Amino acid sequence: MKKFILGILAITALAGATMLSAQASAPAQASAPAAAALPALTADQIVSKYVDAVGGKDAISKIKTLSTDATLQVMGNEAPSKTVVVDGVGLKSESEFNGMKIISVYTDKGGWMQNPMAGAADPTPMPDEQYNSGKEGIYVGGPLYNYAAKGGTVALVSTDDKGYTIKLTTKDKTEFTFVIDGKTFMINNMTMTAQMQGQAVTLSTSYSDYRKTDAGFMVPYGIAMDFGGQFQIGMTVNKVELNKTVDPAIFVMPKAGA
Questions:
Q1: CA dist 207 → 42, 139, 147, 167 (Å)
Q2: Do 175 and 167 meet the contact criterion of CB atoms below 8 Å apart?
Q3: Percentages (nearest 5) of helix, strand, coil residues in the chain
Q4: What does the pLDDT look like over 38-81, one tens digit per residue?
Q5: What is the CATH number of the domain that holds 241?
Q6: pTM of the prediction?
């Protein structure tokens, strides 16, 4: 399973992280007074406040492409990774591990991958389960942004003195659970179920070191992923570029041996 994870880790993270902004709450002191109850909000109101907190619809709508260079931390080793997103069109991630290049591509029509570590030296179509788990990554705004227009629904799961937990169900019935800070309305954590070699694995992603781009759009530079408590991967973003010219041909699956 670890080889499979290496092939999809960058995309799995960025599928939910491109527009996710988190701010962890400080631990409460023993002598601190009880926190005031949070206002009662609907799931849609919470999402709206989140979108405003991370830059607003105007800032998000101006971003047509997003490119990142990152370093992955895997089992004590580091690996370079690059990801390119053309909003609503496609996402391509390339990671290099032990001299082998691992590629994952999602588009609005399907996906493909190339993972020599798993014995797939040639590009192959992506299984539907994997594609559905990561295809939200083609949208710069992430899964919550414009969720209704994409055929999704949201529901409030719970509220406590620190924040709100909401569930997003996409058009194809993929579910994401978000924990949103009650003061900042930034996302602290995202949980989803990913299919890996026919097995359902819970992926929990936390975000840190958020930085505002020139467009007023928040991007996480620190990402930590936990695969069902069995495997952990870290990602440190080194560089973010917005609205670079990108040839859509990079999303086309090449022929075997090309």
A1: 24, 18, 21, 18
A2: yes
A3: 20, 45, 35
A4: 899 999 999 999 999 889 999 999 999 999 999 999 888 899 99
A5: 2.50.20.10
A6: 0.82
